[in-house]
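Hello, quick one for you while I still have it in my head. A protein chain has come my way and I'm curious about its shape. Can you walk me through what the tokens say about the fold? No rush at all, and the record is pasted right below.
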Amino acid sequence: MSDSVAMPGATTFTGPLGSTIHFIRADTGTVAELAAIDWNRHFHPVCLDPVRGLITLMSPSHPHEDLSTILDDIVNVAGSIFARAAKKLGSLRIRGEGEPPGTGMEPDCAFYVGARARDYFKARREGQAAAEAYVERVAPDLVVEVEVTHADEGKAERYRDIGVRELWRLHGRKGTTELRVEFLSLDPGHAPRTLDGSEVLEGLTPDDVCEAVEGVRFGETDDERREAVARIVRRRQRLSRQVREDREAYSA
């Protein structure tokens, strides 16, 4: 099967970053049956959601893949500085408890940060089986969706119900450098809530992320890319510390 071949009954459209997306409505049983197919041989990311009765298959464009790689670098560096522990999870399909094997949501980027990252590394030291069991049991702290489309309706709620703490959504358009980043807090039992600053990464803002994207994009070496992010994180730490000190002085 070629990446360019649409499945029967699918709605196929082009995303804002130029990716090709196949959007299929199906009942829960059909979604579970189709999970037996190795869709990732042809598409990434893949969503096989039995709760919403939805299958989405993406053939990502170069801008999409470029932004995914950049966000991996940004969160990994920021998490290592802010929380002293971060683990990027790569291609990962996450599902709720009791949902059929092989189904689930596959974000563009997924991370453990802080306590969950430390617990993951502890499990990994016990062996590969323990690490795999941990990933199966514990949802990421943070997921990133690089290309937002109309097929994503209800996705934030699904991540929340699975146990993800925070969702970042990137709004860009192919052929431009314009980028808008949106942070959503995913509190259990509550509607997704827009954040001015990340709760997972200690106040890092959407504007900080946009600035970091440019720094990483034009960094020619790993050291330059890491420093582009670290510089922004250190600035955010100084500003946050200053705000706390001003509040304490005012209270006194």
